[in-house]
Amino acid sequence: MNNRTEKVPGKKPVTSTPHISTDTPVQFLKGVGPARARLLEKLGVKTLEDLLYFFPWRYEDRKNLTEINNLSHGSQATVMGEVTSIRIVVTPRRRMKIFQLGLSDRTGSLTAKWFNQAYLKKYFKKEQKVLLSGVVRGNPYSGSGLEMENPDFEILDSDDTPVHMSRIIPVYNATEGISPKQLRTLLFNTVQIHAARFRDYLPEEILQRNGLRPLQWAIREAHFPDEIQNIHDLNAGASEAHRRLIFDEFFMLELGLALMKKQDVAQKGISFQQKGTLVNSFLDSLPFQLTGAQKRVLQEIREDMEKDIPMNRMVHGDVGCGKTVVALTAMLTAAENNYQSCLMAPTELLAEQHYINIHKLVEALGLHVVLLTASVRERPIEDIASGKSQIIIGTHAIIQEEVKFKNLGLAIIDEQHRFGVMQRADMKRKGLNPDILIMTATPIPRTLALTLYGDLDVSIIDELPAGRRPVRTKVYFPAQKDRVIELIGGELSKGRQAYIVYPLIEESEKLDLKSALDGYEAFKKIFSDKKVGLVHGRMNHREREEVMALFKSGDIDLLVSTTVIEVGIDVPNASLMLIVHAERFGLAQLHQLRGRIGRGTHDSYCLLMGYPPFSEEGKKRLKAMELTCDGFRIAEEDLAIRGPGDFFGTRQSGIPELKIANIVRDVRVLEVARRDAFSLIEKDPSLKNYPLLRNRLTEKWMGMLELIKS
């Protein structure tokens, strides 16, 4: 690329250099340097591409600023004026510091207030030009004038007009040391000079069929709208520029998933015979009948395992729907065919609970089950390599290099959302194309499953065992503590058992949460005639197993616990759970915990003890828990509250990140992109006719070159 000079309005010309590419570190870009690069890294921006794909989170229309005398109570507005006064007011009772800024234009005056942000005083000077954006408060008829509480602000310089004024301007998420205004200046220059480096890689027929504008145009307009002037569409992510960028993200994601599925179908796998000896003995020994949903999913798994191509199936359903029995039946099918199977869980606690439950069920059938985690002292490496151990349960330790299987035929991954596609690929390499079965106790909304697991077949266990009753859930506050104690005592007096769940083991001065250890001592005194037990994550798994066994047998009436009881323990006689500091738990975790009760035929109660003040998200979570016990509705609500980017807590390793697309808002675009991606791979599996797209796919999927076979 030739050297060229681009003129940026109001700024000195910036010269592009021939060695810059989309993966160039940002520190080498004009206006960045090492110090600012470190600040940008906090925002997830490391390269030129990261910077150009760091899109605004909202837009402001500064073409027509509102004059102060035209402001109306309750309206959202942006005003520009000069600073007339700066002061800090201290309230007499609570001694709260309020920073107040007086602002005026030629038509009137306005007061802005920021609570507990006295440090803002150092940023302002009298006669400065300032932009304020926020909701107008106060009543102009009362004589007190107009106010804005905690408005966004921007201090303007004399040369700000081209980039920051008289247009629709982007507002970027900032970090300490770099302001939205500085980011806007940097992005303006970067977009002007470097957006042209992005070539359209989507096939022309897909662009035309979906009416998609050029990529360079979309990047420019998403940052600094020129042709697009509809502020509502921009803020809703519904502009033509956003639609192009959203389609791209979904298309690249689904293209990789389509290739993975195509590759799996082309591979030779193990054809398991349904002999039935171990499976029938196991099913006959169960003290309950399988539900219709369990039988249906088992049949789907059997049909997959009989085929000579590798199974890639995800089983998901609500808490307590019986996934473990389904998974174990599949493991017994592998054992009948003289193949090993393994179950990989994301945490040692979850792996231990699976081991406790499974080894009791299958060792009576003559099978050898081992546990492999980082904490296991006597690592069963030789037993696994020799084939002596038919069932291996563990954490990611299972996929470490030193672990060799004799003949791994089935790999089960529990709670897939905490693992990524790379770990799934590592697991496959432990055997000769073993069958893969994925389980999750987190009901996943259809749109999310479609996005992240598009290469998998999906089974849903949508039926709870007979006799299960919905758990009645209610939020309580500290002032209602006596009522909560009364409810717990009432259940214990009927011979029932109860859980008390805390978020921490010991008291934390910083978080001021009630601790499990303190709670254990308190409940021993309150219910001195009952047996109170304690279980937490710092106990080794044998100690935890002993306590849980005592609780299950009825020798412990009240179990004080941290979230270690989130999975794995099934006590039908436990009819009440109190979750302390419920506002601090995630919605999916609250639902998982609640799933420990309601497992018998008794009415069951989940008491959520909340400690105000609550965040808006906290209020929504607790309300959702009160309204429904349906895990899929809970999952949809969780997705709506937290947003898709944060739904799993940790981003899928190896899966392209969604930076602008939103799977809830943009589900229609997702479905179209998925259809086009799968159709293209069906037509051209190696993408030999689309070299630009092939290169882009390799970049987006973090170098997973094995996806594309020449």
In CATH, what is the homologous superfamily of the largest domain?
A: P-loop containing nucleotide triphosphate hydrolases
At CATH's second level, what is the architecture of the largest domain? 3-Layer(aba) Sandwich
Structural class: alpha/beta
**Fraction in beta strands:** 15-25%
| Helix percentage range | 25-40%
Q: How are the strands of the largest sheet arranged?
A: 13-14-12-15-16-11-17
- Report the C-alpha radius of gyration, rounded: 30 Å
Shape: globular
Number of helices: 23
Query: Biggest β-sheet: count, sense, barrel?
Result: 7 strands, parallel
Q: Which fold does the CATH topology of the largest domain refer to?
A: Rossmann fold
| CATH class designation of the largest domain | Alpha Beta
- Cα(first) to Cα(last) distance is 30 Å
Give unreliable regions as ranges.
1-18, 646-651
Overall tally of structural domains? 4
Average pLDDT number: 84
The overall strand count is 23
Could you characterize the architecture of this molecule?
- The protein has 710 residues and is an alpha/beta fold.
- It has 4 domains: 1-61 and 167-197, no CATH class; 64-163, Nucleic acid-binding proteins (OB fold (Dihydrolipoamide Acetyltransferase, E2P)); 277-461, Rossmann fold; 472-628, P-loop containing nucleotide triphosphate hydrolases (Rossmann fold).
- 35% of the residues lie in helices and 18% in strands.
- The strands form 5 sheets. Strands 13-14-12-15-16-11-17 form a 7-stranded parallel sheet, with helices on both faces. Strands 18-23-22-19-21-20 form a 6-stranded parallel sheet, with helices on both faces.
- Helix 8 (240-266) packs across helix 22 (667-683).
- The radius of gyration is 30 Å and the shape is globular.
- 40% of the residues are buried.
- The model is unreliable at 1-18 and 646-651 (pLDDT under 50).
